[in-house]
Amino acid sequence: MKIICVGLNYHAHIQESNQEILPVEPVLFIKPDSAILHNDKNQFYIPDFTSDVHYEAEIVVRIDKMGKNIAERFAHRYYKEITTGLDLTARDLQTELRKKGLPWEISKSFDNSAVIGNFVPKEKYGKEVTNLNFHLDKNAETVQRANTSEMIHTIDQIIAYASRFFTLKTGDLIFTGTPAGVGRIDIGDCLKGYIEEDELFNIQVC
Ligand code: MG
User: Fold this and answer.
1) One digit per residue, pLDDT tens: the chain, 206 residues?
2) Collapsing DSSP states into helix, strand and coil, what is residue 69?
3) What is the spatial distance between Cα 124 and Cα 49, in angstroms, rounded to a whole number?
4) Ligand 1 mean position to 71 CA, how many Å?
5) Are strands 53-55 and 43-44 parallel, antiparallel or unpaired?
6) Sequence-distant (≥ 6) Cβ neighbours of residue 73 within 8 angstroms
7) CA 123–ligand 1 middle distance (angstroms)
8) 81: closest CA among 125, 37, 120?
């Protein structure tokens, strides 16, 4: 399986990251399956090649049907479950690579950089997936809070676009971008991700 991630999908996050790009189409990158850290494990160890790991809380979608060139109007048929996750980023490494104009894959796709919570049915909250609240608490303080209506590209648009380039397969995950409020994690931090008021992951930083 693969993990497809979207960058720059919330205006407020684009502003905080000093990017001048306003993406007309989704900005995609891939993480390998070795990047997954499921909530079952509940511990994230900061790797030795970075001293500035950032959390990025995101809504994550699990694909449950194979598809290629999926039309946006049919995209909702390709996923039944969602969760929250963390696109963990070695920001120091990413900044250094970006400055040199090099691909920043290693800063985003290292082992355990894709935290995923427990999946829930997308209808669970009785609302459209385009209108869900989610938030991240760090040490019992809310550090990111957003509604999926603030996405620049909707989940269905992302699926349609991504499937032009990548055949989507059952079990593939899509990280749909982070809202404002990203920041650093340190040893001892506790990170909890929510959709509405449901706690879907609880990760200890070691
Ligand atoms: Mg991200």
Assistant:
1) 999 999 989 988 888 887 777 778 999 999 999 999 999 999 999 999 999 999 999 999 999 999 999 999 999 999 999 999 999 999 999 999 999 999 999 999 999 999 999 999 999 999 999 999 999 999 999 999 999 999 999 999 999 999 999 999 999 999 999 999 999 999 999 999 999 999 999 999 99
2) coil
3) 40
4) 24
5) unpaired
6) 156
7) 24
8) 120
Domains and CATH numbers, the chain: 3-205 (3.90.850.10)
Ligand 1 centroid from CA 67, angstroms: 24
Residue ranges in the chain assigned as alpha helix (H): 11-16, 91-99, 105-108, 155-165
Please give the distance, rounded to the nearest whole angstrom, from the Cα atom of residue 168 to the centre of ligand 1.
19
Instruction: State the Cα torsion 15-197-129-159 to the nearest 10°.
Output: 60
Partnered with residue 38 across adjacent β-strands are 116
Query: Looking at the whole model, is its pTM more than 0.85?
Result: yes
